[in-house]
From TrEMBL:
Occurrences of domain 4Fe-4S ferredoxin-type (ranges): 1-30
Alphabetic keyword roster: 4Fe-4S, Electron transport, Iron, Iron-sulfur, Metal-binding, Nitrogen fixation, Transport
InterPro entries reported for this sequence: 4Fe4S_Fe-S-bd (IPR017896), 4Fe4S_Fe_S_CS (IPR017900)
PROSITE patterns in alphabetical order: 4FE4S_FER_1, 4FE4S_FER_2
Protein name from the UniProt record: Ferredoxin-like protein in nif region
GO molecular function terms noted in the UniProt entry: 4 iron, 4 sulfur cluster binding; metal ion binding
């Protein structure tokens, strides 16, 4: 399973893109998206998902 970004809640601050250790987040079209093929949910690297932990908007980076 990968994470996804709820576009309607995203402020497009870019914090998640820089925090993602697997480079799974990028700006496409009108917002940030998570590449489900690259997303590892930070397993084995961190105790919490980095995108969700740095996001200023609660419950914007969520499990897909």
């Amino acid at each position: 399973m990968a994470y996804k970004i709820i576009a309607s809640q995203c402020t497009q601050c870019g914090s998640c893109e820089f925090a993602c250790p697997s480079d799974a987040i990028s700006f496409k079209g009108e917002g940030y998206v998570v590449d489900s093929k690259k997303c590892t949910e930070c397993k084995g690297e961190f105790d919490t998902q980095q995108c969700a932990s740095v996001c200023p908007m609660p419950k914007t980076c969520v499990p897909a």
